[in-house]
Design goal:
heterodimer, A: about 100 residues, mainly alpha, Histone, subunit A, two-stranded antiparallel sheet, 2 strands, about 5% strand, B: about 475 residues, alpha/beta, 8-stranded mixed β-sheet, 3-stranded mixed β-sheet, 11 strands
Amino acid sequence: MSLDPAKLQAVANLARLSVSEDELNQFAAKLNSILALNERLSLVDTTGVEPLSHPLELNQPLRHDLITEHNQRELFQKIAPLTKAGLYLVPQVMDNE
Amino acid sequence: MHHKTLAELSQALKNKEYSSRELTQYFLDRIKQHDTQLNSFITVTEELALKQADLADQRLAKGDAEALTGIPLAQKDIFCTQGVKTSCGSKMLDNFIAPYDATLIRRCNEAGMVMLGKTNMDELAMGSSNETSFYGPVANPWDLERTPGGSSGGSAAAVAAYLTPAATGTDTGGSIRQPAALCGITGLKPTYGRISRYGMTAFASSLDQAGPMARSAEDVALLMNVFAGHDPLDSTSVQKEVPDYTADLKSPLKDLKIGLPKEYFGEGLNPAIAEALEKAKAVFAQQGVQFVDLSLPHTDLALSVYYILAPAECSSNLSRFDGVRYGYRCKDPKDLEDMYCRSRSEAFGEEVKRRILIGTYVLSQGFYDAYYLKAQQVRRLIRDDFTKAFQSVDLILAPTTPTTAFKLKEITDPVSMYLSDIYTLALNLAGLPGLSLPVGFSEGLPIGMQLIGNYFSEATLLKTAHQYQCASDWHLQFPKNF
């Protein structure tokens, strides 16, 4: 499996990264050398091996549903790029009509 | 003053030989004097440090000081520090003043430690040479043309150059141990979950672990006593009692069994490093340690597994950087999509983008089973190799890195760069603790030895390293211009 520039463009869109034409070719070559590392994995027989997603295989701890945090909106919004009336502002998504 | 250990500094503070303010000012002056050569700090927090030092002096005067009250340390810029810039080495967070403290920072503050500043690092902890930092590379104090390693390169260089008595690091694939080895200091990556990850910018959440970097195993043990412990704010933090890591340091190593995995001593290992490890083994043998040859057969797959799992987790974690709530936002976005894309593309560096793209690809529809699932299955095989090995040995000995510090700009190909972590990655996949300590020099550059332990065996690792350091003086060498 390898990444050609067109496929890479689709992946970049999914990742919300804009990549120029020049960059696409450079990235594709380097990414393919990284993906080539993985080819040897396909040679390993993993029939019946459970995937390991967490090294200690612990269960998620449960806790009582109590309020432990207080509202710190002003503090958190002080570092936001753009806010108004306690809301985060982004470019308009819907038309006015 | 700067060549003293943490234990010695602590004793001197308690004996009133000098105050924490004097000690802090001394290291701040050293940073001012020397860091222009190294670039190991992104932010120096002089005012805050002196304030914390005064508070520590009050505690010392009242007699309610803890072991490390009044001791200065540097924090890797990956940990959120309230009111202080927390850049993570990225343009994305260049304007980010953390609104809260990471748990590790809180624990240091409560212990009365003094933060000198925030250290330079590879962008978002992705790199092995500190060259991916938005703030420029860090120089290795042993040779200013060479890398200190990464991603905790700033911390390692600052400790090695005696600009701070200790520092924090984080380790996802070797980012504490590799720079510790290249800079000739002692660094510990604890068992996954031993130290809270709350407030530590996430790279690959199932692999990330914070740990101490200092000049000796004894100093690292003192720091572990402050850092380790359960944190309800981190759901992967382990609920397990924390021992006193200094308690066992002086016990003899007689009858300790150390395994030698043949896969870690094969082709690709620099002969000077192999020779230094032979000499270190002789030191252990004199102390009654027994060596056992063993095999970790899936070792050569660790790199492949790591470079699927780490980018996959990174691509998911880094989706939070969208220019909406904090961090960089591009100028004049024409719509929401444009804002996301340009904010991310303008603020992330090349290595970070590469890992996001790989991660997004391996998780995308149609490829999940072939890449991600397969890698998780092989991850179990790698973990099982270690589990089996630890049925017959107490520890495993290996090199930390295949080479000594390479030159800045020497490695431009990503896969070659990834190979510098070839001996460290497998532990992160297995979640095991590992410690790197200096065991010699080759052409004036430090050589690191890695000790790998079973889960939660940090005390044994530290004891073994301490006993080695009692019988050697590699950890006491210092770069002559500092």
